[in-house]
């Protein structure tokens, strides 16, 4: 296994207004190995429990890709179903951490989002983006599918947009399209403009009623009470498919390149 | 308590084609006290039972705001949970009256809609608007939330648009945005053009099969059978929050202005 | 009964890549009598079982209307509830065949779609269209309603768009509008451009993992397990309404023209 699976970071900073900024990053286009995904889920959960935190901003490092999905190096090392399930549970844990966190989470998507990256953008409560924040669910191209992130994407964008992304797995959709389909609340020309708006909204929310926001959070996520189990089942589907001849061959041909 | 809670009107007129026009109004930007909300709900219910009525047009008075939500004067007079529940049940009754009315209801939104006003626009079956019909769910700004209107807004506009409105509570969204997100079927440049189209559609529907329209109404509202109870529970959430220190302080600082 | 109910065709061709193209047609604007609808449902079901088929393209004949709905000649011959139920079950069978087919289905909509035609466009998994592919649910104009196609249209386009189409039954909605509301994934200026893109996507999918696509198909249709029964009940609603005085009179006045 390459060094990539041991790289990456998750950092949290809480300012004097109670705005917690959580940043994840990885040198390879912010594609995330399991280790980082688990740390990200834990950090979100901790922020949810920290009474000093009023609102959370979730962002990634750098000014290129927001998140290229799961670590490809880790994917190609999967040899058995159990490892596969654990691997595909990585984004499930992040999505479930966002879902169960009683604080509102603002997403900041500065660039392309792929696979699990689209899942994160779907799982935050209010998502800002720049016009560079194109989206793609590329899983089918390697013989799997967006089974784990599917429920989060469908909940936010609807069945039609989710299935379009899942089927047409090699095509980028624009940030504008993602906004029209409910993934992003707003799309900006630059990171600078996006950050001004994020600061404004986060500051307003940090001064808003914590009880009211906690109740809002509950009503936003009604009907997802079974997602701990559902996303685990979905990880099982991907974990099974990734061992199929089709995917093994697809991955081997990637490796040769 | 100010005089405002005793002001306002609800009127119904049925023309020779069976088109019932129901108008509500209040001198303060059509913000509605409980008394008027109850009368509006009753009038919609009565029109639903009246065999002379084939289709209903729901509108508000004047050419400015469609509806500024619930009466602020009544809100600030709430001292206990029971009064709070009754207050927040006002729009619940109107929404449930629209939902249970066996006739199709056409909405006419000539101007801004806030809070419960967005709830009414969501609860009609087909909603026309002018380009002045901006929307806002401002509840969070005073420490509560759009809990009662939430189910109606989400049913019509989807989870993403509903949560965007609920979280970004101080921002107006354009009529165009509301149309793209399913609240309005069409947006016109002027009241005149909107009224021509309303007359056309209402006239067509008044001549359409009452049995077919009653069956359509049923399928549009499948899955909302629990809303009498659900919206009462939601009124309880708001009724509790409005007594919190946060909201009491927020209201007091409004009063001082 | 006129000759029209015995006309029409359904043809299937499978190419060397496993792309099955299913074409239906009828001389009267591709309006479909029960006989053709049953054959279309069977052909889709057979293609789903055929291991040589990797992906399905569903299209209609000619370069005018995609599908004008159910056969009007057959509709006006209905004299009793049982015949009515069978008639209205025609599109239910096609929708259910699409739903239960384990292969992904790409739709090709080259022109106007009415009633059941919109149902077919909704029931495929990924739908392409040209800018001529306007849509209308005209059922209410003859005293019935889009009860059978309603669940498919609502699943793909949402409640708001479905109810707008059902209520405003005489108005065409543009292909652009249908795309913005999730019916079409993409809209092209010409059939030629659409066909290039269909060939591209179908070729990619024919080479994709059949297991992964079968799992995707399952998650796209979660929650529709009761549609065999639901759409049969819906056919019963239409079957009852079509015998009402209102519809009998409406049909008689059409006949006189």
TrEMBL record, chains A, B, C:
Entry keyword set? Isomerase
Q: Which domain of life is it from?
A: Bacteria
| Family annotation (SUPFAM superfamilies) | ClpP/crotonase
**A GO molecular function for this record?**
isomerase activity
Please identify the protein, giving its name as recorded.
Enoyl-CoA hydratase/isomerase
The record's similarity note reads:
Belongs to the enoyl-CoA hydratase/isomerase family.
List the Gene3D superfamilies.
Answer: 2-enoyl-CoA Hydratase, Chain A, domain 1 (3.90.226.10)
What InterPro entries does the database record attribute to this sequence? ClpP/crotonase-like_dom_sf (IPR029045), Enoyl-CoA_hydra/iso (IPR001753), Enoyl-CoA_Hydratase/Isomerase (IPR051683)
PANTHER family linked? ENOYL-COA HYDRATASE (PTHR42964), POLYKETIDE BIOSYNTHESIS ENOYL-COA HYDRATASE PKSH-RELATED (PTHR42964:SF1)
Q: Name one Pfam family in it.
A: ECH_1
């Amino acid at each position: 296994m390459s060094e990539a699976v041991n790289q990456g970071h998750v950092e949290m900073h809480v300012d004097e207004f109670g705005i917690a900024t959580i940043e994840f990053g990885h040198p390879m286009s912010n594609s995330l190995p399991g280790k980082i995904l688990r740390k990200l889920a834990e950090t979100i959960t901790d922020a949810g429990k920290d009474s000093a935190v009023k609102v959370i901003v979730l962002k990634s490092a750098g000014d290129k890709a927001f998140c290229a999905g799961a670590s490809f190096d880790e994917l190609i090392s999967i040899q058995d179903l159990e490892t596969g399930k654990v691997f595909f549970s990585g984004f499930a844990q992040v999505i479930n951490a966002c879902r169960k966190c009683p604080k509102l989470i603002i997403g900041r998507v500065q660039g392309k989002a792929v696979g699990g990256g689209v899942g994160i953008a779907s799982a935050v409560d209010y998502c800002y983006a720049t016009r560079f924040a194109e989206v793609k669910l590329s899983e089918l191209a390697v013989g799997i599918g967006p089974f784990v992130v599917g429920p989060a994407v469908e909940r936010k964008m609807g069945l039609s947009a989710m299935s379009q992304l899942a089927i047409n797995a090699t095509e980028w959709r624009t940030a504008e399209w993602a906004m029209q389909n409910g993934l992003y609340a707003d799309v900006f020309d630059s990171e600078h403009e996006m950050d001004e708006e994020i600061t404004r909204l986060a500051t307003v929310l940090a001064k808003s009623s914590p009880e009211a926001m906690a109740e809002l959070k509950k009503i936003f996520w009604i009907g997802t009470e079974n997602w701990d189990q559902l996303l685990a089942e979905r990880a099982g589907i991907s974990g099974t498919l990734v061992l199929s001849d089709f995917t093994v061959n697809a991955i081997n041909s990637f490796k040769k390149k």
